[in-house]
Amino acid sequence: MPKILVIEDDAGLNRMIREWLSFERNEVDYAENGKSGLEKLQCYEYDCVILDWELPEMSGIEVLQKFRSMGRPTPVLMLTGKSTISDKEQGFDSGADDYLTKPFHMKELSARLRALMRRVSINVSNVVEAKGIRLDSVSFRVKRGEEDIQLLPKEFALLEFLMRHADQVFSAETLLNRVWSADSDATIDAITTCIKRIRKKIDREGSPSVIKTVHGVGYKFDPTN
């Protein structure tokens, strides 16, 4: 489940984008000015950023330049009413990966985001399979063998993240930042509880859990045991 940051000062458009992306099963954070947007980019990791050009407190171009100066490669889609070649050139030269002129259709926004994330994604398939588990992010289904596993949205998102980064260890704090939205009031305990629920639903009696606890470090999806 991709995590996307929307930085847009038009409250109505901001809300419309968030609702659309959430409907398409993305985890969405938002900011309504350049300064708070940059602060979130400094504190959290995202799979993609939607960035308006004309923002209060700090322009989108300034946010983008500072973000790229941090060495962060996250794809950035610029939104703007500017449409001249020189404007687009400035946006791309500042580090934008794509450019969408207002007004636009939400389906085009989604298509451009998918294209951007495919460029950097290690696993671009909608389906992830390991340890006899098949997770389909489009149909929102999880199967182990022939059995359907019913997961809640956050359980699904956490399992998907761990499976797509199999054998990588993540601290509980990192998982909280990557799977939950920045304005969520969830705590580290939410990770522990969510993992317990996933294990109860998906593990097999007498076999090691597919989600391994690395004591003192964090958790990982173990594709080998």
Description:
The structure is a single chain. The chain has 225 residues and is of the alpha/beta class. The chain folds into two domains: 3-120, 3-Layer(aba) Sandwich (Rossmann fold); 127-221, Arc Repressor Mutant, subunit A. 41% of the residues lie in helices and 21% in strands. It has helices at residues 11-23, 34-43, 60-69, 85-93, 106-120, 153-164, 172-179, 188-202, and strands spanning 3-7, 27-31, 48-52, 76-80, 98-101, 127-130, 133-136, 141-144, 147-149, 211-214, 218-221. The strands form three sheets. Strands 2-1-3-4-5 form a five-stranded parallel β-sheet, with helices on both faces. Strands 6-7-8-9 form a four-stranded antiparallel β-sheet, with helices on one face. Helix 2 (34-43) runs parallel beside helix 3 and helix 6 (153-164) packs across helix 8 (188-202). The longest helix has 15 residues, at 106-120. The protein is elongated and about 65 Å long.
The helix-strand sequence is EHEHEHEHEHEEEEHHHEE
Gap from first CA to last CA: 25 Å
CATH structural class of the largest domain: Alpha Beta
Kindly report the CATH topology of the largest domain: Rossmann fold
The class by helix and strand makeup works out as: alpha/beta
Q: What is the fourth-level CATH superfamily of the largest domain?
A: Response regulator
- Please give the count of helices: 8
The largest β sheet comes out as: 5 strands, parallel
The rough form would be described as elongated
Rg calculated over all Cα atoms = 19 Å
Number-wise, the strands total 11
**Order of neighbouring strands in the sheet with most strands:** 2-1-3-4-5
* Average pLDDT reading: 87
